[in-house]
Automatic annotation (TrEMBL), chain A:
Protein name, as recorded: NADH-quinone oxidoreductase subunit N
Gene coding for it: nuoN
GO cellular component: endomembrane system; plasma membrane
Compartment(s) where it occurs, according to its Swiss-Prot or TrEMBL record: Cell membrane; Endomembrane system; Membrane
UniProt keyword annotations, A-Z: Cell membrane, Membrane, NAD, Oxidoreductase, Quinone, Translocase, Transmembrane, Transmembrane helix, Transport
Organism: Streptomonospora mangrovi
TrEMBL record, chain B:
Protein's UniProt keywords contain DNA-binding: no
Name this polypeptide is given: NADH-quinone oxidoreductase subunit A
Species lineage: Bacteria, Bacillati, Actinomycetota, Actinomycetes, Streptosporangiales
Enzyme Commission identifier(s): 7.1.1.-
Alphabetic keyword roster: Cell membrane, Membrane, NAD, Oxidoreductase, Quinone, Translocase, Transmembrane, Transmembrane helix, Transport
Biological source species: Streptomonospora mangrovi
Cellular component GO terms held in the UniProt record: NADH dehydrogenase complex; plasma membrane
Enzyme class: translocase
Pfam families: Oxidored_q4
Length: 548, 119
């Protein structure tokens, strides 16, 4: 008996109205409903009360959606992978529900960071439409204006991130990609301080993101030409049989290869793998730090979820074609980003390059194309998400002076371990987890992905990965040494007191990094297929007749 | 490959048309500039005054354009539904009403936040 993990099905077209299982869609519907109500709150609730209402609504919706996904995964049949719904456009299986759950938890923690208000000042511009430095901006700052639209925008982005890894056809996946990306483009430009920088980041992200969406869409057109369908089950069948209905003689391979390549460009851009990583440092640095945390955790989970599904389900039959390409991308990512990261002088840029390197590590698990690879990648993504939110939460607290902008320059962080040992200690734990030191979640994650790659015969990748880890460990440890063993700089930073929200975000990050490092078994057991059952050739189960 | 030949021919004709008409226009066309010709084209109305040095320009037109797109998309989805109203039945009706409600929420937001006030 095989234990397939991913479900796929082709739609059955009937004349009857579709029976949609709204229960299985409920985590997404709750988040969408809350986002829509959030827009209404913006329109009808007085400005003074908006923030409290929006925050409560957003946190409640994300928490409720998470509880619903837990209930759904409990109710999924134990022997099968799951179901597809809404005309075979959404797949609900263990993988997609786990990824959705991760997005929701990480989104909840990011929301805490987004909600932080220090003396009435959030991380977001008082009036984003006012020219930076203008009289109008000053008036809005004095009046204490706030952009509470941030909360519905984050909810819409989270909705896209939930749908992205669960899509069962290319068009749904593209819509999810846009729903996820459009709010993020906007959120990137809303920073309160260094506003021109933030706006530049937003424009860069938007232009490059639109460009990559075009690649993705063009790839879909190619695959549609090859398979005659955008549904994953039908594309997978066409790939297995060497051609869709149009290419019974097997002559459509160029179309398929073009399609795989173009779709890979779109997805690899979203995960930020070399050579499509150039947006990451600029955008991560310019965006408001809570939004950077959201992107570095939730977007990465969602984008990798989609990447895994696309390469394992529709293109699963042509792994021999895409695996070499992903080998090259993974090696480039791990080597180039690690080397460039060493030269970084800004903490947010450094964390951005570090995120690129981590994308490379996860790619080694994608190349493995095995249940272990899938489980390793998912564990890695969830664990890395908590750690990275924690790290960015620490960044929000270290300012150049009280009420000043964040102190990005690493030289300013010298001696931080002496002035505020708790904060520096938390950051040190996160950095050690990034480096993959035992007793942190980073070690378990790296072990899981490298073990899967090794088992799949990708030993050279693992060697490159370990070497790259050593290089990255160098600059993580350099920061720790700088914080604890260097004398505080004359113009040292001011560490502002962590509010309740930021404090909880850091505490959750520390707890998750430590717990997943010491006792990862429950999570790993849940992700891996049950021992004792034989591993099937395919990761994919085809659900028959469950399309509704 | 023969199937693609007309596409390539069409692409070549299209490219040639662009190149030829721009080159011919720049060589043969008379150039009599006046104030109106050098102004930005805004659908035939008086151009919005712009501050010197490439400053900001008003967002009013964009709001109107975005509102237009909202209703434009709405009507695109309403047409096929109206044509097959009887076959789509109650399910189609509920789906359409939900869609209209969601679209109207964007409209309500713009209205309440002053997006429709033309000074």
């Amino acid at each position: 008996m095989s234990t397939p993990l991913l479900v796929t099905a082709a739609p059955t077209i009937t004349e009857n109205p579709p029976q949609i299982d709204y229960w299985l869609l409920s985590p997404m519907l709750v988040v969408f409903g809350a986002a829509v109500i959030g827009v209404l709150v913006e329109a009808f609730v007085p400005a003074a009360r908006r923030r409290a209402v929006q925050l409560g609504l957003a946190l409640a919706a994300v928490a409720a959606a998470f509880v619903l996904s837990i209930l759904i995964v409990g109710a999924l049949p134990a022997d099968g992978p799951g179901e597809t719904l809404a005309f075979g456009s959404v797949a609900v299986d263990r993988v997609s529900v786990f990824l959705q759950g991760s997005v929701l938890v990480l989104g909840f923690v990011s929301l805490l960071l987004i909600a932080e208000n220090r003396r009435g000042e959030s991380a977001f511009a008082a009036q984003a439409a006012a020219v930076p430095g203008s009289e109008e901006e000053r008036e809005h700052v004095m009046a204490g204006s706030q952009h509470t639209e941030v909360y519905p925008l984050v909810l819409f982005a989270l909705l896209g991130m939930q749908l992205f890894p669960a899509a069962n056809d290319f068009l749904t996946m593209f819509v999810a990609l846009e729903v996820m990306s459009l709010p993020l483009y906007l959120l990137c430009g809303l920073a309160r301080r260094r506003r021109l920088f933030s706006q530049e980041a937003a424009v860069k992200y938007f232009l490059l993101g639109a460009f990559s969406s075009a690649f993705f869409l063009f790839g879909i057109a190619m695959v549609y030409g090859y398979a005659g369908s955008v549904n994953f089950a039908e594309v997978a069948a066409a790939v297995r049989e060497g051609g869709g209905p149009l290419f019974a003689d097997g002559g459509g391979r160029p179309l398929l290869l073009l399609g795989i390549g173009l779709i890979a460009v779109g997805l690899l851009f979203k995960v930020g793998a070399v050579p499509f990583h150039n947006w990451k440092p600029d955008v991560y640095q310019g965006a408001p730090t809570p939004i950077t945390a959201l992107m570095a955790s939730c977007t990465l989970v969602a984008a990798f979820g989609a990447l895994l599904r696309v390469f394992y389900v529709p293109f699963g039959g042509s792994a021999a074609d895409w695996a070499p390409m992903l080998w090259v991308v993974a090696i480039l990512t791990m080597v180039l980003a690690a080397v460039v990261a060493v030269t970084q002088r800004d903490i947010k840029r450094l964390l951005a390059y570090s995120s690129v390197v981590h994308a490379g590590f996860v790619l080694t698990a994608v190349v493995a194309a095995s249940p272990e690879g899938l489980a390793g990648a998912m564990f890695y993504l969830a664990a890395y998400g908590f750690t990275t939110i924690g790290a960015f939460a620490v960044v929000t607290l270290v300012r150049t002076h009280e009420n000043g902008p964040e102190a990005g320059e690493l030289s300013q962080w010298a001696g931080l371990g002496r002035t505020s040992p708790l904060l520096a200690g938390a950051l040190a734990l996160f950095l050690l987890a990034f480096a993959g030191i035992p007793l942190t979640s980073g070690f378990i994650g790296k072990f899981a992905v490298f073990e899967a790659a090794m088992a799949a015969g990708a030993a050279p990748l693992v060697v490159v990965g370990v070497l790259s880890s050593a290089v990255t460990a160098f600059f993580y440890v350099r920061i720790i040494v700088l914080m604890f063993f260097a004398d505080p700089a004359e113009t040292g930073p001011t560490v502002v007191r962590a509010g309740l929200f930021t404090g909880s975000a850091i505490a959750i990050g520390v707890a998750a990094t430590f717990l997943l490092g010491v006792y990862p078994t429950p999570v790993l057991d849940h992700l891996l297929p049950q021992p004792g059952t034989e591993q099937g050739e395919s990761l994919v189960a085809t659900a028959e007749g469950s399309a509704g | 490959m023969e199937l693609y030949a007309p596409i390539f021919v069409l692409a070549a004709i299209g490219a040639a048309f662009v190149v030829v008409s721009m080159v011919v226009g720049s060589i043969a066309g008379p150039k009599r500039y006046n104030r109106a010709k050098l102004q930005a084209y805004e659908c035939g109305i008086e151009p919005t005054p712009q501050p010197a040095g490439g400053g900001r320009f008003t967002i009013k037109y964009y709001l109107t354009a975005m509102l237009f797109i909202v209703f434009d998309i709405e009507i695109i989805f309403l047409y096929p539904w109206a044509v097959h109203f009887d076959e789509l039945g109650v399910f189609g009706l509920i789906a359409m009403v939900l869609f209209l409600v969601n679209v109207s929420i964007a409209y309500a937001y713009e209205w309440r936040r002053g997006g429709l006030e033309w000074e």
